[in-house]
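Hey, I'm writing a tutorial for new members on how sequence and structure tokens pair up, and I'd like a real worked example in the thread rather than a made-up one. If someone can provide the structure for the chain below, I'll link this post from the tutorial.
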Amino acid sequence: MSSGGLELPPGDSGHEGGPADAPGGAPGGAPGGVSGGVSGGAPAGVPAGAVSLAPPPAGSVGAGAELDWGADAWSEVRTRAQRAGRAYIWLNLIEQRLRAVVGAVLRPIYEPVHGGDDWVVAAAGPAGQEWVQRAVAVREVSRRKGYLLDPADDNVLSFLTLPQLRELMVQHWPCFEPYFDDRREIELALDELEVTRNVVSRNRALSRAVLEQAERASARLLEVLGGGAGSPAADRLPIDAVEDLVGDRYADVISVHPDRVRLQRQLPAEDLFGGARRLDAIGIGLNLLVQNFSGRRLVRLTEAGCRVRLLFLNPASSAVKRRERELGLRKGELSRSVEMNILHVRRVRAGLRDPSRFEIHVFDETPRFTAYLVEGESSGIAVVQSYLRRARGMEAPVLVLRGGGTRGSSRDTEHGLFPTYREEFESIWQDSRPVS
């Protein structure tokens, strides 16, 4: 022990002065004191028996250096925070939805008899007496300390955790059975969420796989509990909790892909075009639609009520020849490809009972982008690519945009990109020529 009552670290046998039991009776061989990090004894001016506070030599490890975070550490904590944030929002939604469901089903049964908040205690029964009494105690503490910021939360039900809400539902399943078909599905989804809830509540690392599992389970559970909207095929990218909260930071861009191949892994053509009520497309050859969505499906889509307008680059225009030179294609190669696509959609139109719902036009301007504007009843999706000078359409980056549906949308699109490309499409359509 040192004179100050603190135990000092043992001396380093590799330093000058030898081991702690070297002659001289003091660690490091310093007579009557401790070497303050300077070999050969205490520095000048340091009394015997004192620890030197002189700064360490340049290049040595300084005090507190382990507190610094480098770029890799910051990247890791940001990733952890982003994943935990997404998971927390989903868990928050599930807990609020389950709380509302439990209250709506059990309150009318127990409250007329027990009144007030006692109905929650009665519903928990002897098996849940411990945790419901703990919830009552936490609420009282929150009242005294002013933690109840919203009067609507001043009830015992608001202080029950997700597992406790689940327990109430399981105990009283005959009461919930008329509203939900499959108890097992609800329990499995809640089981999948329990790992995520445990990790997020203790601020531990959440892997991407567990986060994706939690998001799938949450979406499924919200749909089962009546919190989902049940959208058609054109709405296969539902608005998730994170987009709803921070979507205004990115206008209406909901995803970005480095090329069309990666886009189609997440959003196949069937999911993009199937169930559409309005489909407008503009581009050179519209390969994403023509080559990935069969003619039969286009016929069925149109006969089901979808209005289709396709705008191709005129294969005889000088713009096609310039594009061929940019891509290093043989003369006429691109124009023949566009002609084949136009012939294909003409055959589709010829097979319709009402060809007026399927319009085909060509334009002669320099192509600046390709866009597929797909609108369902309640929401829409747009896939947009800019034409790069040396890259084919398959290789160009892709933006996926959220848009309003044919009946409008409650989401604010004032600063979105969807209406911008819609306006551009309409402008070019007005100047284009129909294909007979």
